[in-house]
Design a protein that fits this description.
GO terms for molecular function: ATP binding; kinase activity; metal ion binding. The chain is mainly α. Helix 3 packs antiparallel against helix 4 and helix 4 runs antiparallel to helix 5. The radius of gyration is 20 Å and the shape is elongated. Bound molecules: adenosine-5'-triphosphate.
């Protein structure tokens, strides 16, 4: 890395916590605007929170639901990061390694979504079942 690169890197570095936070929020806004799946996951999150409030979840149940929601959203962001980096490197040219990376990133999202679905079905299923057998 030569002096010019180092100077450029120093210019891009976050200088305080507020600046880091601002950039993180810009990242959230970008993923919201660019990614349909992220908006769908956010809508599903709203439904889960509304259902959780209506069904009066316990603290322990809320922790499971929050963990599932946040991990799906975070994984969706990582998937987008990988897609962007791959596109940046390949310049949108077809490449078997690019395909591998993107398919594996999608697989991680899929596994996370299955986990969240299992948690949701278990917690909400039990709560709704208890409402009916009362
Ligand atoms: N440069 C590439 N070379 C080869 N295959 C690619 C390349 N880019 C994308 N693909 C293939 O196309 C699929 C879709 O890629 P794309 O970048 O459009 O993701 P996406 O549709 O935004 O995915 P997601 O639904 O996970 O957000 C990838 O999973 C991969 O199989």
């Amino acid at each position: 890395m030569d002096l010019k690169d180092k100077e450029q890197q120093r210019r891009w570095k976050n200088h305080n916590f507020c600046q880091s936070l601002r950039h993180a929020l810009t990242g959230l806004k970008t993923v919201w605007l660019d990614e349909r799946n992220f908006r769908f996951d956010t809508a599903a999150m709203m439904v889960a929170i509304l259902l959780g409030v209506c069904l009066k979840l316990s603290l322990y149940e809320w922790l499971w639901i929050c963990w599932s929601i946040i991990s799906v959203l975070a994984n969706e962001i990582w998937n987008t990061v990988i897609e962007n980096v791959v596109d940046l490197v390949t310049k949108f040219h077809s490449d078997p390694l690019a395909k591998k990376a993107k398919d594996m990133a999608s697989a991680a999202v899929l596994l996370n979504a299955i986990f969240a679905l299992l948690v949701g079905v278990t917690i909400f299923g039990i709560k709704i079942w208890q409402l009916f057998i009362r």
